[in-house]
Amino acid sequence: MTVVSFTARGQYKVNGYINGQHLVEKVETWVANPTLGDTLIETTYANYRDFGGSKFPTRIVQKQGGYPVLELTVADVQPNTAVSLQAPAAAAPQAARAEAEKFAEGVWYLRGTPDPNSQLVEFKDFTVIVESSVTEGRALANIAEAKRLAPNKPIRYHVNTHHHSDHSAGVRAFVAEGATIITHEMNKKFYEDFVLKAPHLLAPDALMRNPRQGQFIYVKDQGKYVISDGDRTMEVYHVNNGHAANLLMSYLPKEKLLLITDIFNDFGMPRPNDPPPGVVSPYYAALGDRIKQLKLDVQWLAPSHGTRVEGVARLNTLLQGKVQAPPIKPITETK
User: Fold this and answer.
1) Fold type of domain 97-334
2) What pLDDT band is residue 330 in, cutting at 50, 70 and 90?
């Protein structure tokens, strides 16, 4: 086997394996992932056949991080056939930003790019940020905005709602910041044994530059975790749903505000799989059932996939099988 190795674009390490018949059997590529670190993408090529004088693999399998993500069986190959292929235009990278919209004294909705959005809650001597975001850059923008809004108050807690990549990419940044991560107990092994230990050599992140031991608080299915300073209280609960088995939501009793993600969104972000009129989404039903079960007096909802805080009338209308409801906008102040 001959191995050809090179670095593409100054960052991506590539190994190509060529057998004695001069056929490529395997290609390994390492790419940076904000949650999983340096991730191996391995593609194997097998069962070569002759198609009009050209040899081509009829079995192609690709794995990411050791798990299969693509399997192809090739039935036919037509060499030298005229085709017109155009690569789609690359999307311009979005600069990470966070802009605070004040909901109540000491409570802000952190809008910005890239989505999803986060929420900031200020206590007497510290702050709490809910949602890790889809990139480290957005997490760092949220951290910077929190420090601007509440100077000299450390970010003591970070609520990670669940493990999906668009909600966990900032976990390492919050560990580097020194925040204690509040998440579901299901995530213990994933975060402690993998995410925090995964090497990030291709794209060194905040935790690589400032190594720290992660501190975690794990919430059980029927349990809750309460953050309080004697004046303001935040209650963190699990919510059973069809989207993620480890989903957490946070409730502010004084403000009657529920911080929720993925199973509720505002008018600005309609879900592509929303049911037709007359059919209640199982996501909304699960959220409504959990609110009733916990007897929470919810008047407002702050969705992470969304653009603003919504009145509970929006959820109540959705629970009636309707897809439209007049928006209710709370008194806000944009910073």
Assistant:
1) Metallo-beta-lactamase; Chain A (3.60.15)
2) very low
